[in-house]
Amino acid sequence: ITPIPRASFGNPRSPPVAPHCNDLLMEPASPKASESNRAILKFREQLARQTAGDLPADKEPITISIDTPPVEAFTYLSRQGIRACPVLNNDNSIAGTLDLRDSCGLICHLYSESLGADQAKPALERQGSMNILKPSDADISEVAKRRPFVTFPASATLVEVATALATGSHIVGIMGGAEAHRGLSRVVTQGILLGFIAPEFESVHMPVKACMSQPVVSMLVTEPALKGFELMASRAVSCIAVVDEDQDGRVVFNMSATDARTFFGSAERDPITDLGMEVGDFIVEKQLQASSNKTRAPITVCTENDDLHAVVTKLVKTRYHRIWVVRDTKPVGLLSLTDVFKNLMIPDDALEGGTGDCSIL
């Protein structure tokens, strides 16, 4: 691959470094530019004055070996309480990223393999991440390579960091640390960056509908948990709206990669019993097992016309990664952290050709 400025894609011993993104800063708004566009421009300019080195580094980077078997690898993520981490080759170079989003297909295969020989196997859809990982795989090399781990020098602007987090990566690395951690000083998640820059959103006044993604992928609260993981794997989405027909289609639960984490983190994991449960019961039971000493906030929703700044504030306070957008109690869209970064950091012409599905992986 031909190197580009500030990048090191060609050296297999070096993690990919994101290209310079100052060109994403728009030209000064014309007198006819909308107030919303001027606010976004100001927001980007404020981020351009801050650097990756300003971000908090409250704990050492967590990594995992590429030789780790899949079930063991996702169990490790669960016990560390994280959604993703860098994967290291045997020579200590960075191979890519392990992300809980890639565990959904594996969970479906665990269910299928747990069935007796005389039991009918479910017709699992073979797309998305379904055909990437199986319980019999020796390691996580293939899935790690699908998700490059992007790194930045401490001098990179927060515009660059936010842009990377808007285009598929849920974590990025900041260099300048110890060699034991492959030079990483910290791993930055979407949530960490959003919490850090949340005060800058005060100047951004726009409705949620300007940033939300559609269509909604949903399932009934009475359907088995297995279907939720099948949908996330086959549709390549990271969350499902769980709705209750008896409550006029109201969103009652959010099923996401967090539920994959609680599945792998459960000491009493039983694919047949767990995945055969109604999804609402599965979510409640697994969360109680995983967080017996914590109180989880109830499902949170907003409307299309709510102010983006107010909703971002709610996401920061709850530490949620997304919020369902409802109209007359029914889900009509989703606002995720990816949606927020994507719509505020990426020029419109760079977003053409997207699928529009909620929280595409």
TrEMBL record:
Annotated source species: Hemiselmis andersenii
Alphabetical list of InterPro entries matching this protein: AMPK_gamma/SDS23_families (IPR050511), CBS_dom (IPR000644), CBS_dom_sf (IPR046342)
Record-linked SUPFAM superfamilies: CBS-domain pair (SSF54631)
PROSITE patterns, A to Z: CBS
Keywords for the protein's UniProt record, in alphabetical order: CBS domain, Repeat
CBS domain segment(s): 57-115, 294-350
A matching Pfam family: CBS
Designated name of the protein: CBS domain-containing protein
Superkingdom as given in the UniProt entry: Eukaryota
